[in-house]
Design goal:
Blueprint: H1 20-26, H2 51-57, E1 59-62, E2 69-72, H3 79-103, H4 111-133, H5 141-167, H6 177-198, H7 206-225, H8 233-252, H9 258-279, H10 289-308
Antiparallel strand pairs: 1-2
Helix pairs in contact: 1-9, 3-4, 3-5, 3-6, 5-6, 7-8, 7-10, 9-10
Length: 310
Amino acid sequence: MNKTAQNEPSGNQSSPRITRREVLVAGGATLIGTTLLGSLFDTVQAQTMTGQDMKRRGITSKDGGMKPTFLPEQGSTDAVAFSVAENLFWNEQLMEHAKFFVMMMPGLELAAQRGQAEQFQNSFMSQLQKAQTASLDRSNYAAFNRSTVELVKPFVDFKRQMRDEQAAGKLKSLVWSTFFDHTAREAERFSKRLDQFSRGDTSTSLSEAADFWTQIMGEHADFIAHLLDPVENTLIQKAIQTSGAFKQMHSSSPASKNPLEKAVNDIIDFKTAAEKGINAGQIKSIIHPTLADHVRREALKAADELKRAA
């Protein structure tokens, strides 16, 4: 079902006043503050796609923030539709990963690494634009997936190199080595999913999806605890507690997906409220709304995969 016609708040509209209590309540018992880093920067405009075009391509969208999240239609097993949705989603995310690195590699001494990040940013922006406009079908979708994978591989290598240099003290950027690794694992899984879809397999393994997303969500909670202003003690403690809850899920492999689905749905509620609170200046932090929206979309992606998982 096409949800783009709903009257969702856009990133350019004035945000309603959001209290800290409302943000905490939005997260429920398993609240995770999952915004990442922060700095002012211009963002690429959200993809625009008509409902008719989405229906033709077998995808749908979920709104609620600055950019829509494109997903395969519920019940679909069409490898082309899955590939289109995956390319739309992760090329956007990887483009933003590169942009975050550019922001957080300031000064002359990091000019070379910043330049590499800018090149990756441009590459994934271009691939995203191609995914938006390309006429993909069963005759050519696998080739397009391969072209994306070939862009992802060197970016994963770059992230891992930066991770190791940051951890060793050779790179003195503002990017945590943990964040380099976090984004490398996301990119690596993106490649694997495209390879899977290119073989015509659109299945989602519950154990694999749970293992991946519990780690990602737990790390998001850790990140937020270190990005909130120290005066936001209640939110910081809640983020730490929720990180622990996801780490426990990650290590224990829940017997059913119900607790995990509930936890992820709670995160979506929290992220939507937190994004509004950040926009309204009601949460003190070094978190930019664009980055809040980035991880909100990842929570929507996690919820969708878990719903489909067998």
